[in-house]
């Protein structure tokens, strides 16, 4: 383990979480393999926070995600149970690509790493996340839930109560605890856990029990949960939509009770029953019905908003980041991102921010509707990937300054000043990095033709986490919709372990959570 890393252990729970995770691990791996650009400061991001060094039985060094993932039978596809990386038949679930292996030295303090180079799949051939994962996983990463199926109409993990019951079974609880102890015990300084968890299906229950376990066993560590929902849905299957609503509501309440921070992530327009159109990005052309596309965009946002606790120099701990945003019971936050950040030719950062005017500079990614007219209580903002020469005004000396931003002498000052102008009373932290976000294949080609005529390999991104009053409306709307439900019509959800009293308690918890985001709240309450 490289000295100085404040390690984070990731739990990846569910199939859409697998899609987001696969893209995110691929993006980080691509950044590791990228030769350091003269413009970039080496080591802005510390990969040892999320990755770990290891050794095969043959003495070959490896570099794998510090990851525990749970998914259903039938989701591994092209990944093999027999590991090409760790050949030890005593270890279960050892998986690796059956492809060319290359050993390389990265641009960081790592000694060496092994990366697989499989054939890049076509979009039409991708059915599961393992079809396009390009990094090796450690033998102790995979925990397969055999009692439920990934495909087919029968044996699906579709209800919150089913998910909760999985981690009440000694078999799965012991498997998870065994993997937790393995990874935690090798850490020099574990700052906490991040949970990537499907919210729309039974994995919301798995995630809730996992968060409860982490809170009980690792008190004082940060637990940040990213609640993931696929793109837009239709009204064609009433049961599926009702279950999605119930799973999301139960998941948000239970996860917020056991996490330091919870952030829903979705390209949908709403968490409720009424379908809303997916969000729009000016410079992206994506198919909202494809998990492969939606998860790539969410992974890019995730790679950006998690920057504060992954910094090599002066990192902010997960606990500190959460405490800045979750005061007065505001455990749920929203995310937003501008992908890519639209810095035009010959433009500077002050020019671009000036053109944005008073509009919210990022696209909302938490299915909480239009943020206009809402207020923000606290925010963490990251801008990455801009050439340093563009950070400040490039006007000829003596030219009248269009805005105060053009008078700033550093990019950090420009960004902080802009956020202060936008919302003067908001508690803000901001970060400016030279390192862009990698979008090389198998990342899908989503970028509009007017962005570049060449293949895009890396992009600048603006990302934000916000404690927003929009959650008052969003959570309140969930209460209204759930109040109208007659759970007796959805007996199978009740059969999975949820009772009418549980729903009544859920409604009260949602009301309490919604009240935390009323617009009159003081920052210093």
UniProtKB/TrEMBL annotation:
Subcellular localization, as worded in the UniProt entry: Cytoplasm; Mitochondrion
Top-rank taxon: Eukaryota
SUPFAM superfamilies: Tubulin nucleotide-binding domain-like (SSF52490)
Protein family per UniProt: Belongs to the misato family.
Protein name (database record): Protein misato homolog 1
Keyword DNA damage among UniProt keywords: no
Residue ranges annotated for the Misato Segment II tubulin-like domain, each copy included: 6-109
GO biological process, one term: mitochondrion organization
Described purpose of this protein according to its UniProt entry: Involved in the regulation of mitochondrial distribution and morphology. Required for mitochondrial fusion and mitochondrial network formation.
